[in-house]
């Protein structure tokens, strides 16, 4: 589809999804789904500009479904806390926000029937693509998609699936300065708060979540991770001021809390990756710390988005490179000293106290230190009866308990455990040529006992409800 230029927003972020023009209608609709924020949101600013251009009011609509794939009360509570703040921020800008129950695509189609034009943000997962395709099939007015949650649009970086970080890194860095630019807000010329469209109240988020037909067994964790853009920015300021100086030194040491914990906020679109990158770039920190962080945010995160975009079966064992499937197949019958099923893993009931601590951190807080995530996944591969079961169990647990689960990073990181975006290593039992991780490595590289103690304290805090 054609690219549509607009002020301040890079043309590479914007594309028309159909060939229709704007029509007579009551308002311009911004169907918000991925970019759940009121600031530094290219789709929102584009929609404001579109409304001003056509002298229309702007309606922001969000579809809330009970059956979002693998989502539970933990995810919904965090998301709705963020949407409550977003609604309040939009209200201050004179923009009407409405949340309606229903499949997101059906809510968008319903609201679009009285729209002169529709703007939507972009999602890379399978169901997100299908929702947008259904909207295009159902609506005969102009529909424009605006990318706001990839720091650099995937197709701008590369036109193919990249083999590894080393292949995508130069392509990413080539566009870095071009896309790490600020985005100003545009004033809406026609206040839209008087649009008569009904929706659900966000005044009582816990009550709203309690009334939904969802999995309530995984409890919300607001004591560890309150949702919302304001909280994301507060954490970011604290990270830059208090922790960033030792980021590169401590980022692989789980006994320290020297990570920014931005991934849940990025996953739900409560914080712009561009705004985050600019804050890090302009922090005044040591250049090595800055480059180390931007490597993770731009290169590694971009690699996962590239993986999901170009890989239809990103959530299946079949997505792995041929060499990885071959070596795992050759060692499928190797004897396992330990063999754990999903129930034992979920209960953190293994012989390995380090792994159990990582699983408890995930279950009780919705987060796990990044270095322990690698160890956690590798051990599931080692302890499962076959690699196919291991792959699925990794995804099941990842998506159930992590606030940032069900994300392009989730699928990219789980696949990495099994050889994606990696190279062949020295062959060994069970792993074959897949990279392994050992408990002795944890003991050598960090104070792993201090990590276990830290997790024990977090679990106690969670159980006390504080």
What can you see in these coordinates?
Strands 1-6-5-2-3-4 form a six-stranded mixed β-sheet. It is 48% helix and 7% strand. The longest helix has 24 residues, at 287-310. It folds into three domains: 1-148, Rossmann fold (3-Layer(aba) Sandwich), CATH 3.40.50; 150-184 and 230-310, Serine Threonine Protein Phosphatase 5, Tetratricopeptide repeat; 317-463, DNA Cyclobutane Dipyrimidine Photolyase, subunit A, domain 3, CATH 1.10.579. It has 20 helices and six strands. It is α/β, with parallel strands linked by helices and 466 residues long. The chain has helices at 42-53, 73-92, 104-112, 126-138, 154-157, 165-179, 205-210, 229-243, 247-250, 263-267, 273-281, 287-310, 322-330, 342-346, 353-365, 370-383, 387-401, 408-417, 439-445, 448-463; strands spanning 14-16, 27-31, 57-64, 96-101, 115-121, 142-146.
Provide a concise account of the structure shown.
The protein has 466 residues and is an alpha/beta fold. The chain is 48% helix and 7% strand.
Reconstruct the topology from this structure.
Layout: E1 14-16, E2 27-31, H1 42-53, E3 57-64, H2 73-92, E4 96-101, H3 104-112, E5 115-121, H4 126-138, E6 142-146, H5 154-157, H6 165-179, H7 205-210, H8 229-243, H9 247-250, H10 263-267, H11 273-281, H12 287-310, H13 322-330, H14 342-346, H15 353-365, H16 370-383, H17 387-401, H18 408-417, H19 439-445, H20 448-463
